[in-house]
Amino acid sequence: MLVMLAAPLVAWIMYRAGISVVGPYTASEASESPHRMVLLAFVCILLMLVAALLVGWYAQREASTRAASAAWLVNTAGRQRMLSQAIAREATAPAARRNRDRLSVAIAQMNAEATSARNAIDTTTTQYPELLR
């Protein structure tokens, strides 16, 4: 796409400078050749293309890092909900069907997940303070 924009620019530069594609130049004419301006235009266009690619790559990397962090938090919230439902189910079950071991494991998992989620949220808000707005 950038080439489609660059080609008319180069053609316009050649037209305005009166550059002819014909004729051998002598050594003294080569140093003052208008072709140098065209070469410079090509180099500048290539540098702009490289810069645009680098900026796009960096933005993509940042976006994927934020998305991975957000996905982890969403998954942790889902596990928290599942564990809270399991705890509620065990706590409200009739005494004959209660399983204390399952209840204590669910509570321990929920506490560990809560601590992990709290640390992740603190880290995320420290790295990206704009999320708090």
Structural overview:
The chain is mainly α and 133 residues long. Helices cover 80% and strands 0% of the residues. The protein is built from four helices and no strands. The protein has helices at 2-17, 27-31, 35-92, 100-127. Helix 1 runs antiparallel to helix 3 and helix 3 (35-92) runs antiparallel to helix 4. The longest helix has 58 residues, at 35-92. The chain is rod-shaped.
Indicate the radius of gyration in whole angstroms: 32 Å
Helicity level: over 70%
Structural class: mainly alpha
Which strand-content bin applies to the residues? under 5%
Task: Sum up the overall morphology in one term.
Answer: rod-shaped
Beta-strand segment tally: 0
What's the number of helices?
4
End-to-end span in angstroms? 37 Å
